[in-house]
Amino acid sequence: MASINDVFDELQAVNTTLGQIHADGVAEISATNQVKASVDTLDADVKAGFAATINALNTIAKIDIEAVKLLFHLTQQADTMICALEHISKNTCGILTQATIQTQLQTSLRDDADVIRDIEESKHPEAVLERQRLAELRTQIERCCPPEKPKPACNYEPCLSPRPVELPDLPRIDNEQPPVG
Known about the structure:
Elements: H1 4-123, H2 125-144
Helix pairs in contact: 1-2
């Protein structure tokens, strides 16, 4: 049978083991708390990193929107320039066609008029004097009452053009951002 001393020794051994278990539990809790603190810090850093990334992506998106607006404006300006060049091209072609026709007609008329004048002047010398007198009268009348000027053959119609571009509304970018971590 076991003596009281044996029971006491056993209780002492159990007490020591319980103390050891308690110390191990406290150490385990401390280590767990340290791991939790590290995970919490890492979580905060990751959240801050994601927030900074989202802010940067939003800034880039705003810049892209303004760039697209400018590209659209430039496209409108290019369309206006193409329209103006088409007007110039059409008018130039028409002018060249008419100038060629008119040059041929004027050359033919000049030649015919020279022949007719020579024939008429030789046949009617008194008509030459009358013609000179009428030319002087016409000059005097035109000094006082000039004839109406002919209307222009063409009226310019400007192409639609976009309104001037406004300064883009770009976000402010800070060069010095706090380091993450």
